[in-house]
Write a structure and sequence with these properties.
alpha/beta; 9 helices; homoserine O-succinyltransferase activity; MetA_family; methionine biosynthesis; Class_I_gatase-like
Length: 313
């Protein structure tokens, strides 16, 4: 089944060119199916690029999904046309009285900014608190994972001395956990962050199930026992060229970045990179939609209750 998105959303043309089945609102309204309601809080500057990346991963599921896009505030954007934001994004006030099956909170380029200095920190706190009562499962990606750990577990910001950038090998743990179904014992995934997620630190200070780690990148995937909060510290949604564009951007800003690890063939930026994480990304999102959202959520979202959720599969 397809994802359902607004008829004129730029991602619809991109996904159709990739032979991904996208159902526009005009057609979906004729079907008698209860789609999953998934809200995406997009914190990235280039919102059109980011929304397309996440929609691509959400599309690889037999479930019909009704997507809504949420912005954190109404400040003007330097990287996204105002018309696009006004046409396709909602403000929190417009959704706060509704329930959703899933919520995805994207990363943000705030790795070196202290939480208290993030201009929308209090607003983000309000949204995360709201999600406890209105969302079946929330997926926190990259910077949002660190923000979620701060707000849910009061963990302080932990920053690496150097930016972690590249594609890293990971090992799975708890191999029978629903989020890991179909995973190989090892897999590749991209990272681009300053945040530090030490397995030992999370084991000592949280009750999370730590599901995948890297000897270099630390914790990659973790979940609460009831699967209502899932933390992904990397970027499974990245396109093949996203790390390349970030590297070129940082070079242009005089930051002297290191070449992304295990990304360019022969570590030569003149060689086109190859996406080696695509299958893992699709599988992760399919598992989240099925086992953390669809299998847990009530059929009638108006009947949302903590009693719906179980800690064991």
């Amino acid at each position: 089944m397809p994802i359902k998105i607004p008829d004129q959303l730029p991602a619809s043309d991109v996904l159709r060119q990739e032979n991904i089945f996208v159902m526009l609102e005009s057609r979906a309204s004729t079907q008698g199916i209860r789609p999953l309601k998934v809200l995406i809080l997009n914190l990235m500057p280039k919102k059109i690029e980011t929304e397309t990346q996440f929609l691509r991963l959400l599309s690889n599921s037999p479930l019909q999904i009704d997507i809504e896009l949420l912005r954190i505030d109404d400040r003007p954007s330097k990287n996204t046309p105002t018309e696009h934001l006004n046409n396709f994004y909602r403000q929190f006030e417009a959704v706060k009285n509704r329930n959703f099956d899933g919520l995805i909170i994207t990363g943000a380029p705030l790795g070196l900014v202290q939480f208290e200095n993030v201009i929308y920190w209090e607003h983000l706190q309000a949204i995360m608190a709201w999600a406890k009562e209105h969302v079946t499962s929330t997926l926190y990606v990259c910077w949002a994972a660190q923000a979620g750990l701060k707000l849910l577990y009061d963990l302080p910001k932990r920053t690496r001395k150097e930016k972690l950038s590249g594609v890293y090998h990971h090992q799975i743990h708890h191999c029978f956990h629903p989020l890991l179904r179909g995973f190989d014992d090892t897999f590749l995934a991209p990272h681009s962050r300053y945040a530090d997620f030490s397995p030992q630190y999370l084991q000592e200070h949280t009750d999370l199930d730590i599901l995948a780690t890297s000897d270099v990148a630390g914790v990659y995937l973790a979940s609460t026992k009831d699967k209502r909060n899932v933390f992904v510290t990397g970027h499974p949604e990245y396109d093949a060229l996203t790390l390349h564009h970030e590297y070129i951007r940082d070079l242009g800003e005089g930051m002297e970045p290191s070449i992304p690890v295990n990304y360019y063939p022969n570590d030569n930026p003149d060689n086109p990179p190859v996406a080696s994480w695509r299958s893992h990304g699709h599988l992760l999102f399919s598992n989240w939609l099925n086992y953390c959202v669809y299998q847990q959520t009530p059929y009638d979202l108006d009947q949302f209750s903590e009693e719906n959720f179980t800690k064991d599969d």
